[in-house]
Amino acid sequence: MSKNDANTSTENLPEQMQFRRDKLGALRESGENPYLITTCRVTAHAREIVDNFEQFEEQEVTVAGRLMARRGMGKVSFADLSDKTGTIQIFSKQDQLGETSYDAWKGLDVGDLVAVKGQVFKTRTGEISIRNSEWQLHAKALRPLPEKFHGLRDTDMRYRKRYLDLMTNTDVRETFIDRSRIIRCIRKTLDDLGFLEVETPLLNNIPGGAAARPFITHHQALDLHLYLRISPELYLKRLIVGGLERVYEIGRNFRNEGMSTKHNPEFTMMELYQAYTDYHGMMEITEKLVSEACLHVKGTLSITYQGTPLSLEPPFKRITMIEAVKQATGINFASFMGSDEEAKKHTKELELKSRTTLTKWGDILNACFETYVEDKITQPTFVIDYPIEDSPLAKVKPGTDGRLTERFELFIDGREYGNAYTELNDPDDQRRRFEHQRAMREAGDEEAQLPDEDFVEALEYGMPPTGGLGIGIDRLVMLLTDSPSIRDVLLFPTMKPLGF
Length: 500
Prior knowledge:
Layout: H1 3-10, H2 15-29, H3 46-51, H4 53-56, E1 60-71, E2 76-82, E3 87-93, H5 94-97, H6 99-106, E4 113-122, E5 128-139, H7 155-160, H8 162-168, H9 170-192, E6 196-197, E7 203-204, E8 216-219, E9 224-228, H10 233-241, E10 246-254, E11 266-275, H11 279-298, E12 302-305, E13 308-311, E14 317-320, H12 321-329, H13 340-350, H14 361-372, E15 381-387, E16 404-412, E17 415-422, H15 427-442, H16 453-460, E18 466-472, H17 473-481
Parallel strand pairs: 3-5, 6-10, 14-15
Antiparallel strand pairs: 1-2, 1-4, 2-3, 4-5, 7-9, 8-9, 10-11, 11-18, 12-13, 15-16, 16-17, 17-18
Protein backbone atom coordinates (compact mmCIF):
# COMPACT_ATOMS: atom_id res chain seq x y z
CA MET A 1 0.00 0.00 0.00
CA SER A 2 1.38 3.41 -0.94
CA LYS A 3 1.77 6.32 1.45
CA ASN A 4 -1.15 8.07 -0.24
CA ASP A 5 -3.32 4.97 0.22
CA ALA A 6 -2.37 4.84 3.92
CA ASN A 7 -3.30 8.50 4.38
CA THR A 8 -6.63 7.97 2.64
CA SER A 9 -7.48 4.97 4.84
CA THR A 10 -7.10 7.00 8.07
CA GLU A 11 -8.20 10.50 7.12
CA ASN A 12 -11.78 10.04 8.37
CA LEU A 13 -10.99 8.22 11.62
CA PRO A 14 -12.56 9.38 14.91
CA GLU A 15 -10.31 11.76 16.82
CA GLN A 16 -9.22 9.27 19.51
CA MET A 17 -8.25 6.68 16.92
CA GLN A 18 -6.33 9.27 14.92
CA PHE A 19 -4.37 10.31 18.03
CA ARG A 20 -3.41 6.69 18.65
CA ARG A 21 -2.37 6.13 15.04
CA ASP A 22 -0.28 9.29 15.14
CA LYS A 23 1.53 7.92 18.21
CA LEU A 24 2.15 4.63 16.42
CA GLY A 25 3.44 6.48 13.40
CA ALA A 26 5.89 8.42 15.56
CA LEU A 27 7.13 5.21 17.14
CA ARG A 28 7.72 3.62 13.76
CA GLU A 29 9.58 6.66 12.49
CA SER A 30 11.84 6.58 15.55
CA GLY A 31 12.62 2.91 14.98
CA GLU A 32 10.62 1.67 17.95
CA ASN A 33 7.96 -0.36 16.15
CA PRO A 34 6.24 -2.42 18.89
CA TYR A 35 5.05 -5.03 16.39
CA LEU A 36 8.63 -6.16 15.78
CA ILE A 37 8.90 -7.52 19.34
CA THR A 38 8.42 -11.30 19.33
CA THR A 39 8.95 -12.62 22.88
CA CYS A 40 8.76 -11.67 26.53
CA ARG A 41 9.93 -13.70 29.53
CA VAL A 42 7.03 -13.31 31.96
CA THR A 43 8.06 -14.44 35.46
CA ALA A 44 4.85 -13.87 37.43
CA HIS A 45 1.15 -13.11 37.05
CA ALA A 46 -1.06 -10.60 38.82
CA ARG A 47 -3.12 -12.98 40.94
CA GLU A 48 -0.20 -15.05 42.21
CA ILE A 49 1.62 -11.88 43.27
CA VAL A 50 -1.43 -10.54 45.11
CA ASP A 51 -2.27 -13.91 46.70
CA ASN A 52 1.33 -14.61 47.74
CA PHE A 53 2.64 -11.15 48.57
CA GLU A 54 4.96 -12.33 51.35
CA GLN A 55 6.72 -14.60 48.88
CA PHE A 56 7.11 -11.86 46.25
CA GLU A 57 7.78 -8.81 48.46
CA GLU A 58 10.85 -6.90 47.24
CA GLN A 59 11.40 -9.55 44.56
CA GLU A 60 11.94 -8.44 40.96
CA VAL A 61 9.28 -9.75 38.56
CA THR A 62 8.27 -9.26 34.96
CA VAL A 63 4.57 -9.06 34.18
CA ALA A 64 2.81 -8.49 30.87
CA GLY A 65 -0.70 -7.48 29.99
CA ARG A 66 -3.04 -4.67 29.04
CA LEU A 67 -3.20 -1.20 30.59
CA MET A 68 -6.74 -0.80 31.89
CA ALA A 69 -6.55 2.49 33.81
CA ARG A 70 -4.15 5.45 34.38
CA ARG A 71 -3.98 7.79 37.39
CA GLY A 72 -1.71 10.77 37.98
CA MET A 73 0.42 12.25 35.21
CA GLY A 74 3.00 14.28 37.14
CA LYS A 75 6.37 12.86 38.18
CA VAL A 76 4.56 9.93 39.85
CA SER A 77 1.79 7.91 38.22
CA PHE A 78 -0.19 4.73 38.69
CA ALA A 79 -1.62 2.28 36.20
CA ASP A 80 -3.62 -0.95 36.35
CA LEU A 81 -2.20 -3.82 34.33
CA SER A 82 -4.50 -6.75 33.55
CA ASP A 83 -3.27 -10.20 32.57
CA LYS A 84 -5.04 -13.56 32.25
CA THR A 85 -5.27 -13.95 36.05
CA GLY A 86 -6.31 -10.50 37.24
CA THR A 87 -5.10 -6.94 37.76
CA ILE A 88 -2.13 -5.42 39.56
CA GLN A 89 -1.08 -1.81 40.09
CA ILE A 90 2.04 -0.41 38.39
CA PHE A 91 3.83 2.42 40.27
CA SER A 92 6.03 4.62 38.07
CA LYS A 93 8.35 7.49 39.00
CA GLN A 94 10.28 9.82 36.71
CA ASP A 95 13.48 9.71 38.76
CA GLN A 96 13.54 5.91 38.60
CA LEU A 97 12.70 5.43 34.92
CA GLY A 98 14.51 8.49 33.65
CA GLU A 99 12.85 11.45 31.97
CA THR A 100 12.77 10.04 28.43
CA SER A 101 11.38 6.63 29.42
CA TYR A 102 8.89 8.18 31.85
CA ASP A 103 7.59 10.63 29.24
CA ALA A 104 7.09 7.71 26.85
CA TRP A 105 5.31 5.78 29.59
CA LYS A 106 2.97 8.72 30.18
CA GLY A 107 2.26 8.76 26.44
CA LEU A 108 0.77 5.24 26.50
CA ASP A 109 -2.97 4.79 26.18
CA VAL A 110 -5.47 2.62 28.02
CA GLY A 111 -5.63 -0.64 26.09
CA ASP A 112 -1.94 -0.76 25.14
CA LEU A 113 -0.16 -4.06 25.74
CA VAL A 114 3.03 -3.72 27.79
CA ALA A 115 5.57 -5.65 29.83
CA VAL A 116 6.83 -4.21 33.10
CA LYS A 117 9.84 -5.26 35.20
CA GLY A 118 10.21 -4.16 38.78
CA GLN A 119 10.09 -4.95 42.49
CA VAL A 120 6.91 -5.96 44.31
CA PHE A 121 5.92 -3.74 47.25
CA LYS A 122 2.98 -2.19 49.08
CA THR A 123 2.11 1.48 48.76
CA ARG A 124 1.33 3.65 51.79
CA THR A 125 -2.35 2.81 51.27
CA GLY A 126 -1.63 -0.92 51.32
CA GLU A 127 -2.02 -1.52 47.58
CA ILE A 128 0.16 -4.38 46.31
CA SER A 129 2.08 -2.92 43.38
CA ILE A 130 5.09 -3.29 41.11
CA ARG A 131 7.71 -0.52 41.12
CA ASN A 132 8.31 0.17 37.42
CA SER A 133 12.03 0.01 36.65
CA GLU A 134 11.82 -1.04 33.01
CA TRP A 135 8.98 -1.42 30.52
CA GLN A 136 8.31 -2.33 26.90
CA LEU A 137 5.41 -1.68 24.56
CA HIS A 138 4.23 -4.89 22.83
CA ALA A 139 1.22 -3.68 20.85
CA LYS A 140 -0.54 -0.35 20.39
CA ALA A 141 -4.30 -0.31 20.95
CA LEU A 142 -5.53 1.71 17.97
CA ARG A 143 -9.10 1.71 19.23
CA PRO A 144 -10.23 2.93 22.68
CA LEU A 145 -11.72 0.30 24.96
CA PRO A 146 -15.50 0.40 25.49
CA GLU A 147 -16.69 1.77 28.83
CA LYS A 148 -13.28 1.19 30.30
CA PHE A 149 -14.33 1.88 33.89
CA HIS A 150 -17.46 -0.28 33.93
CA GLY A 151 -16.87 -3.09 31.44
CA LEU A 152 -18.76 -3.84 28.25
CA ARG A 153 -22.47 -4.02 29.05
CA ASP A 154 -24.23 -4.13 25.67
CA THR A 155 -25.33 -7.78 25.50
CA ASP A 156 -25.40 -8.06 21.73
CA MET A 157 -21.96 -6.46 21.44
CA ARG A 158 -20.59 -8.76 24.15
CA TYR A 159 -21.56 -11.84 22.14
CA ARG A 160 -20.40 -10.44 18.78
CA LYS A 161 -17.07 -9.12 20.04
CA ARG A 162 -16.20 -11.61 22.75
CA TYR A 163 -12.60 -10.38 22.84
CA LEU A 164 -13.84 -7.02 24.20
CA ASP A 165 -16.10 -8.83 26.66
CA LEU A 166 -13.19 -10.89 28.00
CA MET A 167 -10.97 -7.82 28.06
CA THR A 168 -13.27 -5.69 30.17
CA ASN A 169 -15.40 -8.12 32.22
CA THR A 170 -13.41 -10.29 34.63
CA ASP A 171 -16.49 -12.35 35.60
CA VAL A 172 -16.85 -13.44 31.97
CA ARG A 173 -13.27 -14.68 31.99
CA GLU A 174 -14.03 -16.69 35.10
CA THR A 175 -17.03 -18.29 33.42
CA PHE A 176 -14.92 -19.62 30.56
CA ILE A 177 -12.14 -20.70 32.88
CA ASP A 178 -14.76 -22.67 34.81
CA ARG A 179 -16.06 -24.15 31.55
CA SER A 180 -12.61 -25.52 30.82
CA ARG A 181 -12.32 -26.86 34.38
CA ILE A 182 -15.70 -28.62 34.10
CA ILE A 183 -14.70 -30.35 30.88
CA ARG A 184 -11.34 -31.40 32.36
CA CYS A 185 -13.14 -32.81 35.39
CA ILE A 186 -15.52 -34.83 33.20
CA ARG A 187 -12.58 -36.21 31.23
CA LYS A 188 -10.70 -37.18 34.40
CA THR A 189 -13.75 -38.86 35.92
CA LEU A 190 -14.36 -40.95 32.80
CA ASP A 191 -10.68 -41.76 32.33
CA ASP A 192 -10.53 -42.95 35.94
CA LEU A 193 -13.54 -45.20 35.25
CA GLY A 194 -11.67 -46.86 32.40
CA PHE A 195 -13.35 -45.08 29.47
CA LEU A 196 -11.43 -44.42 26.27
CA GLU A 197 -11.81 -41.00 24.62
CA VAL A 198 -12.37 -41.31 20.86
CA GLU A 199 -13.23 -39.13 17.87
CA THR A 200 -15.92 -39.83 15.29
CA PRO A 201 -16.83 -38.04 12.02
CA LEU A 202 -18.48 -34.63 11.91
CA LEU A 203 -19.43 -35.18 8.26
CA ASN A 204 -22.02 -37.96 8.00
CA ASN A 205 -23.68 -39.71 5.09
CA ILE A 206 -26.81 -40.14 7.23
CA PRO A 207 -27.91 -37.79 10.04
CA GLY A 208 -28.48 -40.36 12.77
CA GLY A 209 -28.44 -40.83 16.51
CA ALA A 210 -31.06 -38.21 17.41
CA ALA A 211 -34.29 -36.64 16.22
CA ALA A 212 -33.33 -33.27 14.72
CA ARG A 213 -33.24 -31.36 11.45
CA PRO A 214 -29.65 -31.52 10.12
CA PHE A 215 -27.40 -29.05 8.37
CA ILE A 216 -26.47 -30.12 4.85
CA THR A 217 -23.17 -29.43 3.10
CA HIS A 218 -21.55 -30.59 -0.13
CA HIS A 219 -18.30 -32.44 -0.75
CA GLN A 220 -16.89 -31.14 -4.02
CA ALA A 221 -14.43 -33.95 -4.80
CA LEU A 222 -17.01 -36.70 -4.25
CA ASP A 223 -19.92 -34.60 -5.56
CA LEU A 224 -21.82 -35.78 -2.49
CA HIS A 225 -24.26 -34.20 -0.08
CA LEU A 226 -23.18 -34.71 3.52
CA TYR A 227 -24.73 -33.86 6.87
CA LEU A 228 -23.12 -32.19 9.86
CA ARG A 229 -23.57 -34.67 12.65
CA ILE A 230 -26.47 -34.30 15.03
CA SER A 231 -25.07 -37.00 17.34
CA PRO A 232 -22.06 -39.38 17.40
CA GLU A 233 -24.23 -42.18 18.84
CA LEU A 234 -24.29 -44.66 16.00
CA TYR A 235 -20.54 -44.42 15.43
CA LEU A 236 -19.78 -44.86 19.13
CA LYS A 237 -21.98 -47.95 19.32
CA ARG A 238 -20.11 -49.41 16.35
CA LEU A 239 -17.03 -49.18 18.59
CA ILE A 240 -18.84 -51.16 21.29
CA VAL A 241 -19.54 -53.82 18.65
CA GLY A 242 -15.83 -53.73 17.84
CA GLY A 243 -14.96 -54.57 21.45
CA LEU A 244 -13.77 -51.28 22.95
CA GLU A 245 -16.45 -51.69 25.69
CA ARG A 246 -16.14 -48.20 27.26
CA VAL A 247 -15.87 -45.15 25.00
CA TYR A 248 -16.73 -41.48 25.18
CA GLU A 249 -16.51 -38.37 23.02
CA ILE A 250 -16.74 -34.68 23.86
CA GLY A 251 -17.40 -32.65 20.74
CA ARG A 252 -19.60 -30.45 18.62
CA ASN A 253 -23.03 -31.42 17.34
CA PHE A 254 -25.09 -29.42 14.85
CA ARG A 255 -28.88 -29.16 14.76
CA ASN A 256 -30.75 -26.93 12.36
CA GLU A 257 -33.41 -25.81 14.79
CA GLY A 258 -34.64 -22.77 16.66
CA MET A 259 -32.43 -20.55 18.81
CA SER A 260 -33.20 -19.57 22.39
CA THR A 261 -31.54 -19.10 25.75
CA LYS A 262 -31.27 -22.91 25.84
CA HIS A 263 -30.43 -23.70 22.21
CA ASN A 264 -27.59 -22.86 19.81
CA PRO A 265 -27.28 -24.49 16.36
CA GLU A 266 -23.84 -25.85 17.27
CA PHE A 267 -23.29 -27.12 20.78
CA THR A 268 -21.02 -29.40 22.79
CA MET A 269 -22.09 -32.85 23.96
CA MET A 270 -20.47 -35.58 25.96
CA GLU A 271 -21.63 -39.04 24.89
CA LEU A 272 -20.47 -42.31 26.42
CA TYR A 273 -21.27 -45.99 25.93
CA GLN A 274 -20.49 -48.83 28.31
CA ALA A 275 -20.90 -52.53 27.59
CA TYR A 276 -22.57 -54.85 30.10
CA THR A 277 -24.66 -52.27 31.90
CA ASP A 278 -28.07 -50.60 31.51
CA TYR A 279 -29.79 -47.30 32.18
CA HIS A 280 -29.47 -47.81 35.94
CA GLY A 281 -25.70 -47.88 35.49
CA MET A 282 -26.00 -44.70 33.44
CA MET A 283 -27.87 -42.99 36.29
CA GLU A 284 -24.96 -43.74 38.63
CA ILE A 285 -22.42 -42.34 36.15
CA THR A 286 -24.58 -39.25 35.55
CA GLU A 287 -24.75 -38.53 39.28
CA LYS A 288 -20.99 -38.94 39.55
CA LEU A 289 -20.19 -36.68 36.58
CA VAL A 290 -22.54 -33.88 37.65
CA SER A 291 -21.68 -33.93 41.35
CA GLU A 292 -17.90 -34.14 40.84
CA ALA A 293 -17.94 -31.31 38.29
CA CYS A 294 -19.97 -29.22 40.75
CA LEU A 295 -17.55 -29.91 43.60
CA HIS A 296 -14.60 -29.15 41.35
CA VAL A 297 -15.74 -25.63 40.41
CA LYS A 298 -18.02 -24.67 43.32
CA GLY A 299 -16.52 -26.54 46.27
CA THR A 300 -20.02 -27.56 47.40
CA LEU A 301 -23.04 -29.50 46.15
CA SER A 302 -25.47 -26.83 47.37
CA ILE A 303 -25.73 -24.14 44.71
CA THR A 304 -28.12 -21.46 43.51
CA TYR A 305 -29.15 -21.16 39.88
CA GLN A 306 -30.85 -17.90 38.93
CA GLY A 307 -32.15 -17.53 42.47
CA THR A 308 -33.30 -21.15 42.89
CA PRO A 309 -31.51 -23.19 45.61
CA LEU A 310 -30.45 -26.61 44.30
CA SER A 311 -28.77 -29.65 45.81
CA LEU A 312 -26.66 -31.80 43.50
CA GLU A 313 -26.03 -34.36 46.22
CA PRO A 314 -26.53 -37.93 44.92
CA PRO A 315 -28.70 -39.91 44.72
CA PHE A 316 -31.04 -37.91 42.51
CA LYS A 317 -34.79 -38.47 42.62
CA ARG A 318 -36.23 -41.08 40.22
CA ILE A 319 -39.78 -41.07 38.85
CA THR A 320 -41.44 -42.74 35.87
CA MET A 321 -42.95 -40.53 33.19
CA ILE A 322 -46.34 -42.17 33.79
CA GLU A 323 -46.21 -41.41 37.52
CA ALA A 324 -45.05 -37.83 36.94
CA VAL A 325 -47.94 -37.20 34.55
CA LYS A 326 -50.38 -38.85 36.96
CA GLN A 327 -49.24 -36.60 39.81
CA ALA A 328 -49.58 -33.49 37.63
CA THR A 329 -52.86 -34.26 35.81
CA GLY A 330 -54.57 -37.06 37.73
CA ILE A 331 -54.60 -39.21 34.58
CA ASN A 332 -53.01 -42.67 34.91
CA PHE A 333 -51.74 -43.69 31.46
CA ALA A 334 -50.86 -47.11 32.87
CA SER A 335 -54.57 -47.90 33.27
CA PHE A 336 -55.04 -47.80 29.49
CA MET A 337 -51.54 -48.89 28.46
CA GLY A 338 -51.27 -48.95 24.69
CA SER A 339 -54.80 -47.79 23.94
CA ASP A 340 -54.42 -45.03 21.37
CA GLU A 341 -58.15 -44.32 21.34
CA GLU A 342 -58.37 -43.96 25.13
CA ALA A 343 -55.34 -41.67 25.13
CA LYS A 344 -56.80 -39.46 22.40
CA LYS A 345 -59.88 -38.84 24.55
CA HIS A 346 -57.69 -36.91 26.97
CA THR A 347 -56.01 -34.59 24.46
CA LYS A 348 -58.87 -32.11 24.37
CA GLU A 349 -59.35 -31.90 28.14
CA LEU A 350 -55.60 -31.51 28.59
CA GLU A 351 -55.48 -28.73 25.97
CA LEU A 352 -52.35 -30.13 24.37
CA LYS A 353 -50.99 -27.63 21.86
CA SER A 354 -50.36 -30.19 19.11
CA ARG A 355 -53.33 -32.46 19.84
CA THR A 356 -54.40 -32.62 16.17
CA THR A 357 -51.18 -34.45 15.24
CA LEU A 358 -51.11 -36.72 18.30
CA THR A 359 -52.49 -40.16 17.50
CA LYS A 360 -50.35 -42.63 19.49
CA TRP A 361 -50.57 -43.45 23.20
CA GLY A 362 -46.87 -42.79 23.68
CA ASP A 363 -46.87 -39.49 21.79
CA ILE A 364 -49.77 -38.24 23.92
CA LEU A 365 -48.08 -39.36 27.15
CA ASN A 366 -44.91 -37.52 26.18
CA ALA A 367 -46.87 -34.39 25.20
CA CYS A 368 -48.59 -34.42 28.58
CA PHE A 369 -45.22 -34.63 30.30
CA GLU A 370 -43.76 -31.77 28.28
CA THR A 371 -46.83 -29.59 28.89
CA TYR A 372 -47.59 -30.24 32.54
CA VAL A 373 -44.46 -31.62 34.20
CA GLU A 374 -41.15 -30.69 32.59
CA ASP A 375 -40.84 -27.05 33.64
CA LYS A 376 -42.16 -27.83 37.16
CA ILE A 377 -39.21 -30.06 38.07
CA THR A 378 -36.76 -28.18 40.31
CA GLN A 379 -34.36 -30.53 42.10
CA PRO A 380 -32.29 -33.03 40.05
CA THR A 381 -34.67 -35.74 38.87
CA PHE A 382 -34.34 -38.77 36.59
CA VAL A 383 -37.57 -39.15 34.61
CA ILE A 384 -37.51 -42.79 33.50
CA ASP A 385 -39.33 -45.22 31.19
CA TYR A 386 -40.15 -43.24 28.07
CA PRO A 387 -42.67 -44.36 25.41
CA ILE A 388 -41.23 -46.24 22.45
CA GLU A 389 -42.56 -43.70 19.94
CA ASP A 390 -40.04 -41.15 21.23
CA SER A 391 -37.15 -43.57 21.76
CA PRO A 392 -36.17 -45.35 18.51
CA LEU A 393 -32.73 -46.43 19.80
CA ALA A 394 -33.66 -47.64 23.32
CA LYS A 395 -34.36 -51.18 24.50
CA VAL A 396 -37.95 -52.10 25.41
CA LYS A 397 -38.72 -52.30 29.12
CA PRO A 398 -39.89 -55.82 30.04
CA GLY A 399 -43.52 -56.17 31.12
CA THR A 400 -44.80 -53.11 29.25
CA ASP A 401 -46.05 -54.88 26.11
CA GLY A 402 -43.47 -53.03 24.05
CA ARG A 403 -44.89 -49.63 24.94
CA LEU A 404 -42.11 -48.29 27.20
CA THR A 405 -38.33 -48.22 26.92
CA GLU A 406 -35.48 -48.22 29.40
CA ARG A 407 -34.65 -44.58 28.92
CA PHE A 408 -34.28 -41.60 31.22
CA GLU A 409 -33.67 -37.88 30.99
CA LEU A 410 -32.17 -35.77 33.78
CA PHE A 411 -34.09 -32.59 34.60
CA ILE A 412 -32.92 -29.76 36.85
CA ASP A 413 -34.85 -26.52 37.32
CA GLY A 414 -37.13 -27.26 34.37
CA ARG A 415 -34.35 -28.07 31.89
CA GLU A 416 -33.10 -31.33 30.43
CA TYR A 417 -29.40 -31.97 31.09
CA GLY A 418 -28.88 -35.59 30.10
CA ASN A 419 -30.43 -38.40 28.07
CA ALA A 420 -29.65 -42.10 28.44
CA TYR A 421 -30.84 -45.54 27.34
CA THR A 422 -30.37 -49.18 27.80
CA GLU A 423 -29.27 -49.45 24.17
CA LEU A 424 -31.24 -51.47 21.65
CA ASN A 425 -29.03 -54.31 20.41
CA ASP A 426 -31.60 -56.41 18.52
CA PRO A 427 -30.83 -55.77 14.81
CA ASP A 428 -34.28 -56.86 13.62
CA ASP A 429 -36.06 -54.60 16.10
CA GLN A 430 -33.68 -51.75 15.18
CA ARG A 431 -34.47 -52.18 11.48
CA ARG A 432 -38.21 -52.07 12.18
CA ARG A 433 -37.84 -48.89 14.20
CA PHE A 434 -35.76 -47.27 11.48
CA GLU A 435 -38.49 -48.10 8.99
CA HIS A 436 -41.06 -46.52 11.29
CA GLN A 437 -38.87 -43.40 11.45
CA ARG A 438 -38.64 -43.42 7.64
CA ALA A 439 -42.45 -43.50 7.40
CA MET A 440 -42.68 -40.56 9.81
CA ARG A 441 -40.16 -38.64 7.71
CA GLU A 442 -42.07 -39.34 4.51
CA ALA A 443 -45.20 -38.11 6.27
CA GLY A 444 -43.52 -34.75 6.86
CA ASP A 445 -41.53 -35.11 10.11
CA GLU A 446 -38.20 -33.50 9.18
CA GLU A 447 -36.66 -34.54 12.50
CA ALA A 448 -37.34 -38.26 12.12
CA GLN A 449 -34.22 -40.38 11.66
CA LEU A 450 -33.11 -41.92 8.39
CA PRO A 451 -32.38 -45.67 8.36
CA ASP A 452 -28.69 -46.51 8.78
CA GLU A 453 -28.30 -49.94 7.19
CA ASP A 454 -24.58 -50.11 7.95
CA PHE A 455 -25.33 -49.65 11.66
CA VAL A 456 -27.92 -52.43 11.52
CA GLU A 457 -25.32 -54.63 9.82
CA ALA A 458 -22.92 -53.88 12.69
CA LEU A 459 -25.59 -54.99 15.18
CA GLU A 460 -25.96 -58.23 13.24
CA TYR A 461 -22.41 -59.10 14.30
CA GLY A 462 -23.57 -58.76 17.90
CA MET A 463 -23.48 -55.85 20.36
CA PRO A 464 -23.36 -56.69 24.08
CA PRO A 465 -25.92 -55.23 26.51
CA THR A 466 -24.95 -51.58 26.64
CA GLY A 467 -25.81 -48.38 28.44
CA GLY A 468 -25.46 -45.03 26.70
CA LEU A 469 -25.52 -41.46 28.00
CA GLY A 470 -25.41 -37.96 26.57
CA ILE A 471 -24.92 -34.80 28.65
CA GLY A 472 -25.17 -31.28 27.24
CA ILE A 473 -21.92 -29.58 28.25
CA ASP A 474 -23.20 -26.07 27.55
CA ARG A 475 -26.24 -26.44 29.79
CA LEU A 476 -24.17 -28.01 32.55
CA VAL A 477 -21.77 -25.05 32.38
CA MET A 478 -24.74 -22.69 32.52
CA LEU A 479 -25.93 -24.43 35.68
CA LEU A 480 -22.57 -24.43 37.43
CA THR A 481 -21.71 -20.82 36.52
CA ASP A 482 -25.21 -19.42 37.16
CA SER A 483 -25.48 -18.20 33.56
CA PRO A 484 -29.00 -17.42 32.27
CA SER A 485 -28.32 -17.97 28.55
CA ILE A 486 -26.40 -20.52 26.52
CA ARG A 487 -24.75 -17.59 24.75
CA ASP A 488 -23.10 -16.67 28.05
CA VAL A 489 -21.12 -19.94 28.03
CA LEU A 490 -20.23 -20.11 24.31
CA LEU A 491 -17.20 -18.04 23.38
CA PHE A 492 -18.60 -17.37 19.92
CA PRO A 493 -22.36 -18.08 19.77
CA THR A 494 -24.19 -18.10 16.46
CA MET A 495 -25.37 -14.58 15.64
CA LYS A 496 -27.31 -13.02 12.80
CA PRO A 497 -24.93 -10.75 10.83
CA LEU A 498 -25.38 -7.04 11.51
CA GLY A 499 -27.62 -5.47 8.89
CA PHE A 500 -28.95 -8.87 7.80
